[in-house]
Design goal:
Helices cover 65% and strands 11% of the residues. The chain contains 11 helices and 8 strands. The strands form 3 sheets. The protein has a 4-stranded antiparallel beta sheet. Strands 2-3 form a two-stranded antiparallel sheet. Helix 5 packs across helix 9 and helix 9 packs antiparallel against helix 10.
């Protein structure tokens, strides 16, 4: 009797296990079928929404495409002039650096530091000076290009003449007439030094190749002739700026060293001072005669024949893409809103 019951229980367990396996198989098949069915429904609904709103998509994309083309054509051409420069080698600086290593100890006893100035890389300093507000402000004023920097809005190739914004500057009476200035910031109809600097710094590009040391100076402007002219002038200006500064420092150093010679009777110290004066005199001579004092021109700036910007094709493509994306968003929102309303009334 007990054996019969155990056998019955085993048969029931096997039957239950078979049923469970069948249920699991059916559930997995049902889930996968349901997943693919839902995906098909979602994709079909998405495609129906796009196809139903095709006129909206085409219209909005077309409007944005036309608007971007019109904008691209309205943006004036700009041209870039680029000069390649190499740091000018200075034998005087090298000599002074070697001298600093030899007699720096004696010179320091007299309160003179000759190591830093001699070993200083003038080209690196000059690059940073060119980027400063003070240097660019002086460059603009010295060349009298305030109107060209701030009020120009284009260039006529046929007449080689700048187009000046009449709302900013009166060309006939030669005076500033702008009215959209901010009084709270201390602005007037005449552009401030900072405003001129902001306009000019965006047009000036300076970079240096760390491996070769070659410096690239570029100016981008409406007129290719002025872009070339300004590039040449800014290189001349930075050479003159550093040259003048070194000349003044050399004269001060020579005067100071002569004073020290008169104050000491120690022969070794006097010999140090005479050597220093000799090197400072070489620096002074170099500053007097050398035109390319900091940078020598490897490749001069040329008049560009093709514009550097705007990229009209890219502007048009971006405009069309924005229009297409915006139109899809409008169609999906519209479809979602109508579906929600139908569900509420059903």
């Amino acid at each position: 009797m007990t054996k019969d019951k155990l056998k019955q229980l085993e048969d029931k367990n096997q039957a239950l296990e078979a049923e469970l396996k069948g249920i699991k198989t059916n559930n997995s098949q049902f889930s996968s079928q349901q997943f693919f069915t839902d995906s098909d429904i979602d994709l079909q609904r998405l495609w129906n929404a796009i196809w139903g709103g095709r006129l909206i998509i085409i219209s909005i994309t077309l409007v944005f495409s036309i608007a971007s083309v019109i904008y691209a054509l309205s943006v004036p051409n700009e041209y870039k002039a680029t000069a390649l420069l190499a740091p000018a080698s200075s034998s005087s600086s090298l000599s002074l650096s070697n001298l600093a290593g030899q007699i720096g100890g004696l010179a320091s006893l007299a309160g003179i530091n000759i190591g830093g100035a001699a070993s200083e890389d003038k080209s690196v300093v000059a690059i940073e000076v060119m980027r400063t507000w003070d240097f660019q402000e002086k460059f603009i004023k010295e060349n009298n290009i305030e109107v060209e920097v701030f009020a120009a809005e284009g260039w006529e190739r046929t007449r080689d003449q700048l187009i000046i914004d009449s709302e900013l500057y009166d060309v006939v009476n030669k005076k500033w007439v702008r009215t959209d200035f901010d009084v709270s910031k201390g602005q007037t109809e005449i552009p401030s030094s900072w405003e001129l600097y902001e306009e000019f710094r965006d047009r000036l590009s300076i970079s240096q190749d760390k491996a070769s040391g070659i410096v690239k100076v570029s100016i981008e402007y409406y007129s290719p002739n002025l872009a070339k002219e300004w590039t040449e002038k800014i290189i001349t200006s930075i050479n003159s700026h550093v040259q003048k500064k070194d000349r003044e420092e050399a004269l001060k150093s020579i005067a100071y060293l002569n004073k020290k010679i008169d104050e000491t009777n120690i022969a070794d110290m006097q010999a140090v001072f005479y050597q220093l004066i000799e090197e400072q005199t070489k620096t002074l001579m170099l500053a007097e005669i050398s035109k390319e004092y900091v940078f020598t021109t490897v490749s001069p700036a040329m008049i560009a024949e093709e514009e550097s910007k705007p990229n009209r094709a890219l502007i048009s493509i971006i405009g069309a893409l924005i229009g297409g994306i915006l139109s899809l968003i409008v169609v999906f929102i519209r479809n979602y809103s109508s579906s929600t309303i139908r569900q509420e009334y059903s």
